[in-house]
Design brief:
Blueprint lengths: L2 H28 L4 E5 L6 H6 L4 E3 L4 E2 L3 E2 L2 E4 L1 H5 L2 H12 L11 E4 L4 E4 L20 E11 L2 E2 L2 E2 L3 E7 L11 E22 L4 E23 L11 E2 L5 E2 L1 E13 L2 E12 L2 E11 L14 E9 L5 E12 L1 E2 L11 E2 L3 E13 L2 E24 L6 E26 L2 E10 L5 E2 L2 E10 L2
Parallel strand pairs: 1-16
Antiparallel strand pairs: 2-5, 3-4, 5-11, 6-7, 8-12, 8-28, 9-10, 9-27, 11-12, 12-13, 13-16, 13-17, 14-15, 17-18, 18-19, 19-20, 20-23, 21-22, 23-24, 24-25, 25-26, 26-28
């Protein structure tokens, strides 16, 4: 979408949300406003509550045979299936590469000198791992902040997602051939604050804990238009306007926000083979479902990920490779939100290749290529909808289950501010359009190594 269009959408969203907050009671009393604000109980239900459990309703003064009043319901795969956007959002939220909980300072005991000495000039990677451990009975603490502003889903601009709603019993033709087409603008932002602590149980075994605090904001603006495919009488299907006139357009808005603890991750990392800074290690991540899944702060499911690390150092250059496989448990978010059912969240394979460059004793540059292969996950599919008149076509979206790969890049640096205090800066950027993507995600943080 052109930049001007994005700005216009942002302005409209701000005006609508502000008006919705201040005027919701009056709008509810009027029952037929031009702009309808839908209060959201839980963020995971935002799409279901936006269009209602019975589909998108329009006004009508037409009577059925027998002089019965006519209530028009319009339904869509968008209503029932786009709730899976919540699954995609939550998966992206909690499975983005967490900052490495390993300390930037790694030590080994020198028996000849009787003291601990640093094993590498480099301070290590930011979003990946190296095989080195922090050292026996040593510990480090860190804190990072990441901001995700999601831009696209499957390459489709989140400011312009089309969806077609068909009349119930559309196969009976006549007025039931009419459609409601919508253009939906989705605004999804996530602020993630992560605190992590690492302790060296032995020279070769580290224990780490990562505790995220998550703030999620989600809003949807649906611009709905009645398409009179099978009727010519405007009173058959219409939207009552705020001035009492009959029209074909209505704007629906839904919005909400939530903050709280996310899913806690516990990590064990053990070095199996080591020769100075070169080594091979393995470990296990255990994700605990401590975040509120109904408000998209966590997955609502446990996860287990064994992983393997190879890293080395050649002068100032320290390459590293990471590989892992995550098994996920069952979550309400993998089923229809609000149904009370649970299904397994998609498993995923993760792989990272990168290097850090210790260009000076106080500065390290980092580069990573980060991949994730998500297995049998819901994906948005763009299609052309063909109306029953055999002529009219409209853009539409549906969902399908499919495995896919996501590829991202990351660049950053670590600065030794003073003593054992490091400052971290990083940019994570998308290299493809698969899944739900943020074009650029900034990270800032610090870490401190204790004696």
């Amino acid at each position: 979408m052109p930049q001007r269009g994005k700005k216009r959408t942002a302005v409209v969203r701000s005006v609508l949300l502000a008006a919705s907050v201040s005027c919701w009671p009056a709008a509810a009393a009027a029952q037929t406003p031009y702009n309808i604000a839908v209060p959201v109980d839980k963020l995971s239900l935002i799409f279901t509550q936006l269009f209602g459990p019975e589909g998108l309703k329009v006004d009508s003064q037409a009577l059925l045979p027998g002089e019965q009043p006519h209530t028009a319901h319009f339904n869509s795969d968008f209503q029932s299936e786009f709730s899976q956007f919540s699954t995609a959002l939550t998966s992206q939220l909690v499975t983005v590469p967490l900052p490495s909980p390993a300390s930037g300072f790694t030590y080994r005991f020198d028996p000849g000198l009787g003291v601990f000495t640093r094993t590498s000039q480099s301070f290590g990677p930011i979003l990946s791992e190296r095989a080195e451990t922090i050292g026996s009975q040593r510990s480090s603490f860190g804190f990072t902040y990441q901001k995700f502003t999601f831009d696209t889903i499957e390459g489709l601009d989140l400011d312009h997602i089309p969806a077609v709603f068909t009349h119930d019993n559309a196969q009976l033709l006549g007025g039931r051939q009419d459609l409601v087409t919508t253009t939906n603008s989705v605004n999804a932002t996530v602020d993630q604050f992560t605190a992590f602590l690492t302790y060296g149980l032995t020279d070769s075994l580290d224990l780490s804990v990562a505790l995220p605090f998550v703030s999620t904001d989600l809003s949807v603006i649906a611009d709905a238009h009645i398409q009179r495919i099978g009727t010519t009488n405007e009173l058959t299907h219409f939207y009552r306007q705020s001035d009492g006139s009959v029209g074909t357009e209505r704007i629906f808005t839904a919005f909400g926000s939530a903050s709280g603890i996310g899913d806690i991750t516990v990590r064990m990392k053990n070095v199996f083979a080591k020769n100075g800074p070169n080594g091979f290690a393995g470990g296990l991540d255990i994700r605990l479902p401590t975040g509120d899944d109904e408000n998209l702060l966590g997955t609502g499911a446990p996860g287990v990920e064994p992983f393997f690390i190879w890293s080395a150092a050649y002068g100032v250059v320290a390459p590293h490779l990471n590989f892992g496989y995550q098994w996920n448990g069952s979550s309400p978010l993998a089923a229809t939100p609000g149904s009370g059912e649970s299904k397994s969240l998609p498993d995923r394979v993760s792989y990272i290749a990168g290097a850090d460059f210790g260009v000076s004793p106080h500065l390290t540059f980092v580069f990573d290529l980060i991949g994730r292969y998500i297995i049998d996950s819901p994906r948005l599919n763009q299609e052309t909808f063909h109306a029953l008149d055999g002529v009219s076509t409209f853009p539409n979206v549906t969902f399908r289950n499919e495995s896919f790969n996501e590829l991202s890049g990351a660049v950053g640096f670590k600065v030794n501010v003073i003593g054992r205090l490091l400052a971290d800066f990083n940019l994570l950027f998308a290299l493809d359009d698969n899944g739900l993507r943020d074009k650029v995600t900034p990270l800032v943080g610090f870490e401190f190594a204790f004696k």
